[in-house]
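Course assignment 3, question 2. Fill in each field.
Student: A.L.
Task: Predict the tertiary structure for the chain below.
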Amino acid sequence: MSKNVGTIDRIIRIVAAVAAVAAYLNGSITGALWLGLAGVFTVIWVATSATAVCPLYTALGIDTRGE
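Answer field:
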């Protein structure tokens, strides 16, 4: 897969992941469903930021790299 996630997009995803972890540690996220959803999204955000590849972007034909 070719890279399709730009630098600003990657930064936003990392900030969102950090915010989700902070919300969990803060006690703002409670309940199994919300904890599970936050965990799944956090893993997705970190993985797509680390690899610069988003499968959803590929399916939709989106590229935020700006090249």
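Instructor remarks: The CA atoms of residues 6 and 65 lie 4 Å apart. The helical segments are 7-26, 32-51, 55-60.
Grade: pending
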